[in-house]
């Protein structure tokens, strides 16, 4: 009975995914995933990217955010992308495969590398493997967000942007409070292209308060 129930839900999800407007548009425009549209919506309102910008993309695979960012920063801009999964090459994107969350030496290497490189945008689309248990998923998501925040406050220019995906839950308000201690402006977005049933939200922070 459980197998049938799971199969029904899986088939329903696949059907909805195939019929999704943004999924169809992704195929038409040769975009790697529908996440491209979420970043575009936020950028349209906030103008995150400028020509020649340097960007860090955390949780970059399959590469849709990097695709969008490179279209805005031009050939003299550069995206440094990180993910535990492989990612096909993109022009003006330097991809690094590895687990910066659970491998402290990789994280420290990243931070050391950017000591002399100022970054205009740090964006994180990292997400945990979902268990379906909201409390567990929330804690795992916030852990990823904390890693992204650590990187952002170390490498961002004072007027840079930090964009992070997380999920609505018990740990969220505490995380937002932490961000407000570090950044002057903190905004919450739920893009139209984000599915209404999804608990994901995007937090955008800017204007670092001080050097850490």
TrEMBL record:
<dbReference type="GO" id="GO:0005737">
    <property type="term" value="C:cytoplasm"/>
</dbReference>
<feature type="binding site">
    <location>
        <position position="63"/>
    </location>
    <ligand>
        <name>S-adenosyl-L-methionine</name>
    </ligand>
</feature>
<keyword id="KW-0963">Cytoplasm</keyword>
<feature type="binding site">
    <location>
        <position position="99"/>
    </location>
    <ligand>
        <name>S-adenosyl-L-methionine</name>
    </ligand>
</feature>
<keyword id="KW-0698">rRNA processing</keyword>
<dbReference type="InterPro" id="IPR002877">
    <property type="entry name" value="RNA_MeTrfase_FtsJ_dom"/>
</dbReference>
<dbReference type="InterPro" id="IPR050082">
    <property type="entry name" value="RNA_methyltr_RlmE"/>
</dbReference>
<comment type="similarity">
    <text>Belongs to the class I-like SAM-binding methyltransferase superfamily. RNA methyltransferase RlmE family.</text>
</comment>
<dbReference type="Pfam" id="PF01728">
    <property type="entry name" value="FtsJ"/>
</dbReference>
<keyword id="KW-0949">S-adenosyl-L-methionine</keyword>
<dbReference type="InterPro" id="IPR015507">
    <property type="entry name" value="rRNA-MeTfrase_E"/>
</dbReference>
<feature type="binding site">
    <location>
        <position position="125"/>
    </location>
    <ligand>
        <name>S-adenosyl-L-methionine</name>
    </ligand>
</feature>
<dbReference type="InterPro" id="IPR029063">
    <property type="entry name" value="SAM-dependent_MTases_sf"/>
</dbReference>
<keyword id="KW-0808">Transferase</keyword>
<comment type="function">
    <text>Specifically methylates the uridine in position 2552 of 23S rRNA at the 2'-O position of the ribose in the fully assembled 50S ribosomal subunit.</text>
</comment>
<feature type="domain" description="Ribosomal RNA methyltransferase FtsJ">
    <location>
        <begin position="32"/>
        <end position="206"/>
    </location>
</feature>
<protein>
    <recommendedName>
        <fullName>Ribosomal RNA large subunit methyltransferase E</fullName>
        <ecNumber>2.1.1.166</ecNumber>
    </recommendedName>
</protein>
<feature type="binding site">
    <location>
        <position position="65"/>
    </location>
    <ligand>
        <name>S-adenosyl-L-methionine</name>
    </ligand>
</feature>
<feature type="active site" description="Proton acceptor">
    <location>
        <position position="165"/>
    </location>
</feature>
<keyword id="KW-0489">Methyltransferase</keyword>
<feature type="binding site">
    <location>
        <position position="83"/>
    </location>
    <ligand>
        <name>S-adenosyl-L-methionine</name>
    </ligand>
</feature>
<dbReference type="GO" id="GO:0008650">
    <property type="term" value="F:rRNA (uridine-2'-O-)-methyltransferase activity"/>
</dbReference>
């Amino acid at each position: 009975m459980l197998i049938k129930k799971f199969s029904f839900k899986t088939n329903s999800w696949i059907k909805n995914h195939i019929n999704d407007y943004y999924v169809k548009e992704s195929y038409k425009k040769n975009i790697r995933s529908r996440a491209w549209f979420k970043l575009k919506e936020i950028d349209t309102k906030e103008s995150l990217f400028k020509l020649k910008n340097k960007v860090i993309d955390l949780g970059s695979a399959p590469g849709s955010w990097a695709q969008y960012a490179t279209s805005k920063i031009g050939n003299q801009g550069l995206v440094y992308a990180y993910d535990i999964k492989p990612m096909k090459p993109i022009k003006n994107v330097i991809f690094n495969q590895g687990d910066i969350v659970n491998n402290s030496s990789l994280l420290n290497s990243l931070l050391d590398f950017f000591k002399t490189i100022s970054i205009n945008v740090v964006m994180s689309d990292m997400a945990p493997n979902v268990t379906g248990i909201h409390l567990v998923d929330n804690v795992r998501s916030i852990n990823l967000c904390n890693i992204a925040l650590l990187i952002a406050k170390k490498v961002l220019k004072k007027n840079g942007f930090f964009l992070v995906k997380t999920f609505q839950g018990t740990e969220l308000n505490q995380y937002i409070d932490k961000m407000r201690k570090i950044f002057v402006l903190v905004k919450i977005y739920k893009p139209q292209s984000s599915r209404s049933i999804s608990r994901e939200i995007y937090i955008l922070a800017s204007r670092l308060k001080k050097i850490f």
